[in-house]
Each structure stands twice: as structure tokens, then as C-alpha cells.
Design brief:
Blueprint lengths: L1 E3 L13 E3 L2 E5 L2 H12 L4 H15 L9 E8 L2 E7 L9 H6 L18 H12 L4 H14 L1 E2 L2 H17 L6 H7 L11 E2 L2 H13 L2 H4 L2 H12 L6 H5 L4 E3 L2 E5 L2 E5 L6 H11 L10 H21 L10 H4 L2 H8 L20 E7 L4 E7 L9 E2 L4 E2 L30 E5 L2 E9 L4 H13 L5 H6 L3 E5 L2 E5 L4 H9 L3 E5 L7 E7 L6 E5 L6 E4 L1
Parallel strand pairs: 1-19, 18-19
Antiparallel strand pairs: 2-21, 3-11, 3-22, 4-5, 4-12, 5-8, 6-7, 9-10, 10-15, 11-12, 13-14, 15-16, 16-20, 17-18, 20-21
Helix pairs in contact: 1-2, 2-4, 2-5, 5-8, 12-13, 12-15, 12-16
């Protein structure tokens, strides 16, 4: 068992659950949470609040998301749950053959090759048009204001901003990356906690999106600027890719876990991984969360689910396995039989034979939103479209260049996606939205907060504050330093390669809002591992 003690930022788990009645917004940045609540107070609903908060997060937490990223949403309106997949596809001009001809054997993290069509602005437009009450321009106004006038950085944001700037300074040497440094390190360094940062280009872009309902971004002047920047530096993204894009309304997928329905977006997202792990464990009983058996079974179930997810999850049309088979009772039992008393080396089964920001909103009309958006790997590709504030995502890095793999790169295809919103219902009533951001930690965080809630009866804040683990690969597991030592020792004895760490950023950052079905009272939890905040009235 190893004890890792890298540079870390401190956090306190001494928070109390937050209650409210008329409206609530929970997210990772106080300014964004307050912006969403202000929109609600001005007559907007939970959907308007979610859009306002999401747009603000591109400004006040650019280390995790941006205008050039993707988004997913689960929306509860009039006693029905709706799913929105706003992940963008690969450009039509890219292919495995072209990349291999260029000598590329693995899709890089940075530059134009991993850039896919941004879906987040289209998500805001689609949500506003279908469920919003206020004009999009009004809903985006707080984000425009923060971008134009500036805001002081919060402590955790400053930490990740500085870390990203130092990392980018070492690897992003090409001229095409200079616009990132001009935008996010304008004085030659990352802004410090308490220092002001602004981006007039970002404000201009958000204003245009609001006024044109996204058309300027996907069909107009902004699309022209992205196209020109891509062509100049040998990228594959074109205006035609942007103009052809439209988010997809999808039917959410679920498993029933001890009388509750846990909901996720269907593939290409990895929410299926969380559901498979819960499906594997749903017939077990867990006396307490602070027990080695609880940790061991959770970790083993998650390893098996990830093995399947990494092999099969991609754009659903290209999956060689069906989602219903992967979530079947029979397959859940089959996978459970593989879990013994020792750590296993996970392998995918055969079901047919048996960087990110998250926010949650709720209003007094019963509407609730679980929303997540990301550039991936923090700031994304390292590319900022000149003069626009648009930092482009690098989501295409997840594609495989093996043509036989389910997630093989194809023109116009959506890749395996890490960002996932979650939602909980019981019977025909909404319990509420939840999510844990953070790359491949996300389904692992979903499993842990769902079990903390259902199995162990923790309130939203306690469910988030509880110590976490993260399976990394093979038998390697990270444990948060607050996990009791006897559990760490017991897991190590079972064959897990245990590493203890104070690096709280490894364990995701979550938000939860539950609604009491009898009183309508909202209870919320926010993440102590970041600058989390709940705005409520």
C-alpha cells in the first residue's frame, strides 16, 4: 500500500445540508450558482436557470468547460424525464486512413486532430426553445456581464488554472496555441486567487449566441472564424460540420436499485457503466459504508462495468452489444458471480449471451435539471479561436484508431463520452438530479453517491462529503486520505493495489438536489472538494 502526498489544495467537509422551497441551484462556482438563481427570481424556471448557470460556468470556471465543449442534460418537466445528448461528432473530413497517412498512430491530446463539433451552445438553444420561459438573450446576460466586466478568481479555480498554464507552457509550442495564452494567461502567467480576469471576445460570442439563438455560432460569422482558424492550421473542422449539427433528444436509460430508479443518458455516454455496476450489486446487502466488504464489492463491480464500457460504448448505432442486454437481470447476475474475496483482473463479458462542470437546478413548479458540460482534460485542445474566447474541446482523443474497435473513429461519428448527468426517481415521482464530474471518475462517483443515499441513508451533503475511492486500472485503486486506515489495509490484503492520496481533485466534484415528495422542500449538497456553492430561496 502506497501513500501518495503530492501538492494538494485543502478542503473542509464540515458543511451542512442546504434546504429551500422556491428554487435551488447547486454547482461548483458561487457566481454561476447565484446567476442561475437570479434568473429564476426574474421569472425563469429551472431550465432557464440551468442554461444561465452553464453559460456562466464557461466564464467563471474555464479550467473545466467552455463554449467549444459538449453537454448532456436530464430534464424533469410535468412528471416526465427527458434526455438531451448534445455531444458533437467528428468532422466529416477526418478518418483513420487520413490520420495514418499523416503518421498518426494515436489521436493526440492537443491541437486540431482531437477537436470535435462543439455541442454546448446548441444544448442551451435546444433547452431554451423546448422548455424555457425567458428569452435566451436574457438568460445568457449574466455570463456576458462576467466575461465583459470580469470577476475575481476563487481559490480552487486559481489552483487548476495555474497548473494548466504551467503544463501548457511545456507542451504547447506551436503558433496555433498562442491564442490560448493570450486569452487565459494575458500577463504571461495564470491569474491568482482574488485577481480579476475578463474576456471581451468571450462576451461577444455569448451575446451573439443569445441574439441569434445559436445561428451565428453554427452557421454565421463565428462559424466562419472557426472554419478559417481550422484551415489555417491543418484542422479538419469545417463550417459544414457546424451547420449540420443538431442535439438529439433521447430516451434515458435506467436500472431499478432497491425501489429507486437511477437514470442516465444512453450511449455514447458512460452512464451505462454506473448502471451496470449498480445492476451487479443490487441483490447484495450492505450493513455499513465503512466496511471493507462494501468497498471491495463496489470496486469489483465498477471494474467489471468499465471493462464492458471500454470495449463496447460508443455512438449507440455502432455498438456491437445492445444496451438492454448490458443492463439485463441475467447479465448483472453473471457479472456478480465473478466477484469473490480477492481483487480480480477485469475483462469484458458477452452481454448478448446472457476536465467537467456539473450543475443541478430545481424550481417551485416541480421542474428539475441535471446538466453537465465539458471541454475534456481541463481546458481541452489548447486551441482558442482568435478573438472569440472559444476554447475548443479535445473529445476526439477518446476515439480508437483500430478499425475493428466499437469506438473506432469515423467521419460524423460521436465518440465514447465521459460526461454524464444522473437523476433519481421513485415510483412516478422525481427525487432529483445528481452528478459527479471528473473524467472516468464520473460513473464511480455516481455509484458511490447513489449507494450513500439509498443504502446508507445519507443526506445530500453527507453523501458528497463521504470519503471516495477511484479505480484506475488493473488492480490499482486510489483511496482518499479520509478513508479509515483499517479499510485500506484490508483492501490491500485482498490484492488491491492501494494508493492513499491527499489529492482531492482525483475524486470528482459533485452536486445533489433532492425534493421531499410530501412537502416540496428541496435539500441540496455541494462539493467541498472545490469552490462548490448552493444558491437558494
Amino acid at each position: 500500500m502506497k501513500n501518495l502526498n503530492p501538492l494538494h489544495y485543502p478542503y473542509s467537509s464540515q458543511r451542512m445540508v442546504t434546504y429551500g422551497k422556491n428554487g435551488m441551484v447547486a454547482t461548483s462556482q458561487p457566481l454561476a450558482a447565484q446567476a442561475g438563481l437570479d434568473i429564476m427570481k426574474r421569472g425563469g424556471n429551472a431550465i432557464d436557470a440551468a442554461i444561465a448557470t452553464a453559460a456562466c460556468l464557461t466564464v467563471v470556471e474555464p479550467t473545466s468547460n467552455g463554449i467549444g465543449g459538449d453537454a448532456f442534460a436530464l430534464v424533469w418537466v410535468k412528471n416526465k424525464l427527458h434526455g438531451l445528448n448534445a455531444s458533437g461528432p467528428a468532422p466529416r473530413g477526418i478518418s483513420i486512413e487520413k490520420l495514418k497517412e499523416a503518421g498518426i498512430e494515436e489521436i493526440p491530446k492537443f491541437g486540431w486532430t482531437p477537436v470535435t463539433v462543439p455541442g454546448a451552445p446548441a444544448a442551451w438553444v435546444e433547452l431554451s426553445e423546448k422548455f424555457g420561459k425567458l428569452p435566451l438573450e436574457e438568460v445568457l446576460a449574466p455570463a456576458v456581464s462576467y466575461a465583459k466586466e470580469g470577476y475575481p478568481l476563487s481559490p480552487t479555480l486559481s489552483y487548476f488554472w495555474e497548473r494548466a498554464t504551467k503544463g501548457f507552457s511545456k507542451v504547447l509550442k506551436d503558433d496555433m496555441f498562442q491564442h490560448w495564452f493570450d486569452t487565459f494567461a494575458p500577463n504571461g502567467h495564470a491569474p491568482k486567487a482574488g485577481e480579476m480576469w475578463r474576456s471581451e471576445g468571450h462576451a461577444k460570442t455569448l451575446e451573439a449566441i443569445g441574439k441569434t439563438k445559436g445561428k451565428s455560432f453554427y452557421e454565421g460569422e463565428i462559424a466562419d472564424e472557426m472554419d478559417a482558424f481550422s484551415k489555417k492550421h491543418g484542422g479538419y473542422l469545417r463550417k459544414e460540420d457546424l451547420a449540420a449539427y443538431k442535439p438529439e433528444w433521447v430516451e434515458p436509460i435506467n436500472v431499478n436499485y432497491r425501489g429507486y430508479d437511477v437514470w442516465e443518458i444512453p450511449p455514447n455516454g458512460q452512464g451505462l457503466v454506473a448502471l451496470m455496476a449498480l445492476n451487479t450489486l443490487k441483490n447484495d446487502s450492505f450493513e455499513t459504508r465503512e466496511h471493507e466488504d462494501t468497498y471491495h464489492k463496489q470496486i469489483e463491480a465498477m471494474k467489471l462495468a468499465f471493462a464492458d464500457g471500454e470495449k463496447y460504448i460508443t455512438d449507440e448505432n455502432d455498438m456491437s452489444q445492445k444496451v438492454k442486454d448490458m443492463l439485463s437481470e441475467a447479465y448483472g447476475k453473471q457479472r456478480r458471480e465473478l466477484i469473490g474475496s480477492e481483487a480480480l483482473q477485469p475483462e469484458a463479458g458477452d452481454p448478448s449471451s446472457s476536465g467537467t462542470v456539473y450543475l443541478a437546478t430545481a424550481d417551485n413548479d416541480g421542474n428539475m435539471v441535471s446538466f453537465i458540460q465539458s471541454n475534456y482534460m481541463g481546458f481541452g485542445s489548447g486551441l482558442v479561436v482568435p478573438g472569440t474566447g472559444i476554447s475548443l474541446q479535445n473529445r476526439g482523443h477518446n476515439f480508437s484508431l483500430d478499425p475493428e474497435h466499437d469506438n473506432a473513429l469515423k467521419p460524423g461519428k460521436r465518440t465514447f463520452h465521459t460526461i454524464i448527468p444522473g437523476f433519481l426517481t421513485k415510483g412516478n415521482e422525481a427525487v432529483g438530479p445528481f452528478g459527479v464530474m471528473g473524467g472516468f471518475m464520473q460513473p464511480q462517483g455516481h455509484l458511490q453517491v447513489v449507494m450513500n443515499t439509498i443504502d446508507f441513508g445519507l443526506n445530500p451533503q453527507a453523501a458528497l462529503d463521504a470519503p471516495r475511492w477511484q479505480w484506475m486500472k488493473d488492480k490499482q485503486v486510489l483511496l482518499e486520505h479520509t478513508v479509515p486506515n483499517h479499510i485500506a489495509q484490508s483492501l490491500s490484503a485482498k490484492g488491491h493495489d492501494i494508493q492513499l492520496t491527499h489529492m482531492s481533485g482525483n475524486f470528482g466534484r459533485g452536486q445533489i438536489i433532492w425534493r421531499n415528495p410530501n412537502t416540496g422542500v428541496l435539500s441540496g449538497g455541494t462539493e467541498a472538494r472545490t469552490d462548490g456553492s448552493i444558491a437558494v430561496y
